[in-house]
Design a protein that fits this description.
2 domains, alpha/beta
Length: 299
């Protein structure tokens, strides 16, 4: 659905000042119906990438196509659900009136009814008549999510969607995302790697305007890698685990198993041999992949 070829974005550079390179040489293909997380440090280029995809900015070089169209043309014809990093609405605008007006702007057939639906979905009914400037950060974020998902577009772009949400509403947010139609293409930027890993099937690691890595997130039901750390080294670990791929320190190693049952069985055998397990954690999860990417970049 989305294709970027050698895309770059520069800001400034006039009057002999050096330009700010926000993105450079970004090439990426995103199939329709897939879900992608965009991660990286502050200033990595995440918001600039989203602004280019949504047609707010034009690339300085390279080409972007969404369903074969330039971003602005696609947005005029199809639109997209969008939550900016810092969502806000004009002061004095009641929540219900704001959602009804935004639904009408989205050309939703029954804007009042649809506004009521999202008020219920995001627990906003008791706050419907409050002015938006009186809302807490978490409530305002729920209003932002409600407007982003209201029109049920095929492309949804969410920038830090869980910012300000309490733990309960993070759970509700996950439910809303899992309810999206199968043909929805989702892009989500977040500093919360655990949240990204729960909700998307691919990740892009951005740093200094460039893609450092792009990969599929491991399925929880398939073969997984785990890092096991023992209190003291145990040579018998190699007899218990078939696939010890990396021994990287005293009592630490990485193994591959087919599922949680196999992991439990082999750990039980290891404990029976006298091993004391200090820790165990996934070694192919998003956090570990991101750390490895930046460790490699720093070398």
């Amino acid at each position: 659905m989305i294709d970027l070829q050698n895309v770059g974005k520069r800001f400034g550079g006039k009057h002999r000042t050096a330009p700010l390179i926000a993105l450079h040489d970004v090439t990426l293909s995103i199939p329709a119906g897939s879900t992608w997380g965009v991660v990286g440090p502050n200033g990595a280029g995440k918001s600039t990438l989203f602004a280019l995809l949504l047609g707010f900015l034009k690339p300085s070089n390279g080409a972007i196509r969404i369903a074969g169209l330039e971003p602005r043309d696609y947005m005029r014809q199809q639109g997209a659900g969008y939550l900016p990093e810092r969502f806000s609405l004009p002061a004095g605008w009641p929540v219900r009136a704001a959602l009804e007006a935004l639904a009408a702007l989205e050309n939703i057939a029954r804007p009042v009814e649809r506004a009521d639906e999202v008020l219920n979905q995001f627990g906003l009914q008791e706050h419907a008549e409050k002015s938006t400037e009186t809302l807490s950060r978490g409530l305002l974020q729920r209003v932002g999510l409600a407007q982003a998902l209201m029109a049920q577009r095929q492309l949804i772009v969410l920038d830090e969607p869980t910012e300000g949400l309490d733990p309960i509403w993070r759970l509700h947010f996950r439910e809303r995302i899992r309810e999206l139609p199968a043909n929805t293409t989702l892009l989500m930027a977040s500093h919360d790697l655990a949240e990204i890993e729960r909700l998307v099937d691919h990740a892009i690691v951005l740093d200094k305007g460039a893609i450092r890595e792009s990969f599929a997130i491991a399925s929880p039901s398939g073969p997984r890698k785990y890092r096991v750390v023992l209190e003291t080294p145990l040579a018998a670990a190699r007899t218990v685990f078939d696939q010890i791929e990396l021994a990287d320190g005293d009592g630490a190693f990485t193994v591959t198993v087919n599922d949680a049952r196999e992991l439990s069985t082999r750990l039980s055998a290891l404990l029976a041999l006298g091993a004391v397990v200090h820790s165990i954690q996934p070694a192919d999860g998003l956090e570990e992949r991101v750390r490895a990417t930046f460790r490699e970049a720093d070398r």
